[in-house]
Amino acid sequence: MNRSASKAALAIALAATMLAAAGCNKLKARDELNKGVQAYKASKFEQAIEHFKNATDRDPKLTVARLYLATAYVAQYVPGGDTPENTRFANGAIEQFKKVLDSNEGAKSTRVLSTKGLASIYFNMKNFEEAKNYDKKAIAIDPNDPENYYSVAVVDWTQTYVPRQEARLKLGLHNNPPPGDPFWKTKESMKVCQDFKEKNTAPVQEGIDMLTKAIELRKDYDDAMAYINLMYRERADIQCGDNDARAADLKTADDWVQKTMDTKKAKAEKALEQHGIVLDKPKPDEE
pTM to 2 decimals? Predict the structure, then answer.
């Protein structure tokens, strides 16, 4: 055998060996994935994490293992906690969700799950801007999912309601004033109102628009209806002396409360019809 033929044979042998090793690694990765899933189902999250890590090490393109790894970190994360261990769980989940997105591997549903996962964990960490950022990325990936629009609105409401209520408490104003009682009575409180109006008008309107879209996509979305009521109350509270505008917003909010109640009732009745026992109405001569 000449040198050229010998080199060719060696290259073929090496390629075959590498293919066999790659195939073996993929099989072992699948085995680690299955062991991780079993540990996860048994709530043995640390064991699950190690198995999922092993799976991704053996097959970096096994996206489902990386997604499970992120989910196992999330399962141990306590929202709002700032201990080193809790931070490790949060950062671990963020890292794996982002790797799923960066890899461009997997189906559209996988990218949506990772994007929603990032939005959720950032929200629980009170990093609201990043949460909204990923909620909007979820809309870009799946514009027909009403929950993505709802999630943006929840962030908008949280960012406007919480600081406004804190400001009201500092001013000694009622959190729940009686009907007809103006919210902003003094020069100091009016200045605070104007500041909040300038800062909150855009996110309040965004929240209303997002919830309107969510309800368009899901006609019986009662959670979105409940939040649109809250958003109109937010807008009412930054009308800053415009009593007519405030009254109109409160009227709209009350209308959405009624729609929410009606929708919940209709859904409950429908569920009863589908899963409950429906008795035949008695015949006239049996009454």
Answer: 0.80
